[in-house]
Design a protein that fits this description.
Blueprint (H helix, E strand, L loop, with lengths): L24 H21 L6 H9 L3 H16 L3 H22 L2 H12 L8 H15 L7 H31 L2 E3 L10 H13 L6 E3 L3 H10 L3 H12 L11 H17 L5 H5 L8 H32 L8 H16 L3 H4 L5 H16 L2 E4 L11 E6 L5 E8 L11 E6 L2 E3 L2 E3 L2 E5 L15 H18 L20 H7 L5 H4 L14 H9 L5 H19 L9 H8 L19 H4 L9 H19 L4 H12 L7 H9 L6 H6 L4
Parallel strand pairs: 5-9
Antiparallel strand pairs: 1-2, 3-4, 4-5, 6-9, 7-8
Length: about 675
């Protein structure tokens, strides 16, 4: 029996991960497509005049089984994959793309949607109904529904090719990341590393059958501390070059040709649809609206940040030489020497703070923040099936004890999990027949695993990562919309980071840290002086950090805002584009595009700028909390009702103005970052 095709006999109808096997996915996909096609045919075959109810609302209700199957498959492909699943993806993804094209480009269905769209202003629709009509119409128009004949066939082929290439890109990057290991056999090779990093490296070695040695990998909990603390400059160089050259080595996992194909196919698709570039097409449904707005935004930040960054790097170089370091400062020196300077300037570092950030305590902390702001409580329920033994499962309740959401938390790296951190969902929220169907939300991270002698202790940056992803989770969990297509995080991509980035602000505040930051051995609360040092050091090298983000955003726009067909050498192209944001010499052999999963595998193509865009929103929005108190119930209620509950039910600027009373300006961001 296929568990996808049976009723889920699980708490809250959660995914029966304990019964799902790889062999179930393709038959379930076929069944999901068949069921969805039947629902679509019923809409197409309805002889009544097209209306909002019998076309748009009916369309929003289709695809329940298909959504379950694809949701599980692609989430596991990112969080818990294996060779068999990756092979299945080569059939699964193209088949899904083919069916997606069939529905998006179905002429009969589109004519019905267009009939409702054309008379939408005369139907007495409310704002979310109007948004839903426009979303369904625009999505099809921008994906070729208005095309005919050969052009439509060409577009279908492009979509199928892009689907395959994106999967291939991700598989290459994961294999490159997993295949590298620096094996250290002598204790002197560990010079400078804190005990926690040494113990973690020993555990990795043991897992890889190299007991008695130490292994450094390119997973960030291993790579990050090594670059920050290792006194061995030669080994830092080795590891850094391995990291920055992933999928750029001319081997079977090289991504150079793949990303050029992806960029060119995206451009060709945009041209077919009548747009100047992929960015022009993508930004139709973004707050920024057009590439010129994004470019101007990035240049404004660059103008503010670059002088600060140049001053920072100049001071760092002086410090390095003064302390006996190299005069030819390279990229693999920055994290190491910056950490030393930060420690000297603020008398604070990760190792000093980590004992106060035991993972379980930080998780409890974000739960308490959610309770104080929104009245939520979290109850662990081990009866909810999960896809890996490391995954924790929770039921979420509101202040009145009503069930609100399921919450999955997956925190540790493993061979089948891609790098980074993200929020996702297995079931989105929607209203149907008067019943509020609640969501199933997950966050996935890559934090340092517990060792034989220590629990998982987070760096402060990892604390921020957890708050960030939990902010996304709140956006999904607190959704209160009518339509699944508009619920939760189904918002403009340059708005989706507001709920995540604003929550990071709480982690800098004493009132928040006092809720959870206690020493894992003594139970002592984090000292006030440490909290002050966290705040004082929060802008340390902010100019340099801003330039790094601008570098990625400019690179993304360079790939997608003009014809990429003349890009023959990826490294040369990158060097030219990122010249204005570079603070140290480029490392030969490095090509961040080849590992830029956000834009070549994720959904951030022509959208990476949204991280900085959302920082403008979150800095401005947090001012409202600071004015009345970070746990002020009135402000929290307004943020919940106007932002978190609304999803994509109307234009995000309207939602933001209702919360804040005005449009945002960069002033709060520049002030917070010390760039004003």
């Amino acid at each position: 029996m296929n568990p996808f095709l049976e009723e889920f006999n699980t708490p809250h109808g959660t995914m029966p991960f304990d019964k799902i096997e790889n062999e179930h996915f393709m038959p379930a996909l076929e069944a999901g497509i068949m069921a969805d096609r039947k629902e679509i045919e019923a809409i197409k075959g309805n002889s009544e005049e097209p209306s909002f109810e019998n076309v748009i609302e009916a369309l929003d209700k289709t695809g329940e089984l298909l959504g379950k199957v694809t949701g599980v498959f692609f989430n596991l492909h990112s969080a818990n994959t294996n060779d068999e699943l990756q092979d299945i993806a080569k059939e699964f993804s193209p088949k899904l793309t083919e069916y997606g094209n069939e529905i998006l480009l179905d002429e009969v269905l589109f004519e019905k949607i267009k009939a409702v769209y054309d008379k939408r202003n005369d139907l007495g629709l409310d704002v979310d109904q109007m948004t839903l009509v426009e979303k369904f119409y625009n999505r099809r128009a921008q994906n070729g529904a208005l095309l005919k004949g050969e052009k439509k066939e060409k577009l279908i082929q492009i979509n199928q090719d892009l689907s395959k290439l994106s999967l291939e890109f991700g598989d290459h990057l994961l294999k490159e990341t997993n295949s590298y290991e620096l094996v250290l056999e002598n204790k002197e090779d560990l010079d400078g590393l804190p005990d926690s990093a040494i113990e973690a490296a020993g555990m990795i070695a043991k897992e890889k059958g190299k007991e008695g040695k130490w292994v450094i990998t390119l997973d960030f909990p291993s790579f990050g501390p090594f670059m920050k603390y290792s006194n061995r400059r030669d080994l830092r160089e080795t590891v850094y070059k391995a990291y920055t050259s992933r999928a750029n080595k001319g081997n079977d996992c090289d991504n150079n040709e793949i990303i050029k194909k992806i960029a060119n196919l995206r451009h060709e698709k945009a041209q077919l649809l009548g747009y100047d570039s992929h960015a022009h097409l993508t930004l139709q449904e973004r707050m920024a609206a057009k590439p010129e707005t994004v470019t101007g935004f990035l240049e404004t930040l660059l103008e503010k940040a670059k002088p600060v960054a140049e001053k920072e790097i100049g001071g760092l170089k002086e410090y390095i030489v003064k302390n006996g370091g190299p005069e030819d400062v390279q990229a693999w020196d920055l994290s190491y020497w910056s950490e030393k300077l930060k420690k000297e300037k603020y008398d604070i570092n990760d190792e000093l703070l980590k004992p106060y950030f035991k993972l379980e305590n930080v998780v409890d902390g974000v739960f308490k923040v959610a309770e104080k702001l929104y009245g939520l409580t979290f109850k662990e329920n081990k009866e909810i099936p999960s896809y890996h033994e490391d995954v924790r499962t929770f039921e979420v309740f509101d202040g009145k004890g009503n069930f609100t959401s399921v919450f999955y938390a997956d925190f540790f790296p493993r061979a089948g999990k891609r790098n980074g951190a993200w929020m996702t969902s297995y079931k989105d929220q929607f209203m149907r027949d008067g019943v509020d169907s609640r969501p199933h939300i997950s966050i996935v991270c890559n934090f340092t695993k517990p060792t034989d002698t220590k629990p998982s202790l987070l760096t402060f940056n990892e604390v921020l990562t957890l708050f960030h992803e939990f902010g996304h989770a709140l956006h999904g969990m607190l959704s209160k919309g009518r339509y699944e297509s508009l619920s939760g995080t189904s918002v403009y991509w340059d708005f989706v980071e507001l709920p995540s980035q604003i929550l990071e602000n709480w982690a800098f505040e004493k009132e928040c840290l006092d809720l959870f930051a206690t020493h894992y051995e003594t139970g002592e609360k984090i000292p006030q002086e440490f909290i002050q040092k966290i705040k004082d050091s929060s802008n340390f090298h902010e100019g340099s950090a801003t330039l790094r983000q601008l570098s990625f955003a400019k690179l993304d726009m360079a790939w997608h805002s003009k014809d990429p067909s003349d890009i023959s050498n990826v490294e040369d192209f990158e060097e030219k584009i990122t010249e204005s944001t570079r603070l140290v010499p480029k490392v030969p052999g490095s090509a961040s595009s080849c590992a830029f999963g956000h834009i070549f595998q994720g959904g951030y193509s022509a959208g990476y700028y949204s991280y900085k865009w959302a920082e403008v929103l979150d800095a401005d929005a947090f001012e409202a909390f600071k004015e009345k108190g970070i746990f002020n119930k009135d402000v929290a209620d307004k943020f919940r009702t106007e932002i978190l509950e609304k999803g994509g039910s109307e234009h995000p600027m309207e939602l933001y103005k209702r919360f804040r009373g005005k449009e945002p300006t960069p002033d709060a961001l520049l002030k917070r970052g010390g760039l004003a």
